[in-house]
Amino acid sequence: MNVRVTGKTVELVDTADFHHFAVQANADNDDNDAALKASAAGQMRGETALINSHWLRKAGQNTPEWLASLDAMLALAASKGWLHGDMIQAHVQRGTYPPDSADT
Length: 104
Known about the structure:
Strand content: 25-35%
Radius of gyration: 13 Å
Helix content: 25-40%
Number of domains: 1
Low-confidence stretches: none
Order of helices and strands: EEEHEEHHEE
Number of helices: 3
Structural class: alpha/beta
Distance between the termini: 9 Å
Number of strands: 7
């Protein structure tokens, strides 16, 4: 699963992939931080991102199976030290990412 930041738009894509988690971003960290904060999705911290787990629940699929998989992903993140309160740490992948709501 990925959080895609394109301009001021933040969306959750690749929602069926619980084995990978990253922020895909076109912009620099200041612009990414502004977009993540404006959407309540999270914030930048240095070269990584912190994504709000409550935002993930709202942006994802509202099915018992999907929510159970998200809970398992968050539990794994907690066991690795990647969960900070309600925020899950994600690395940032830089590139050219077009908005693509069809992936969600």
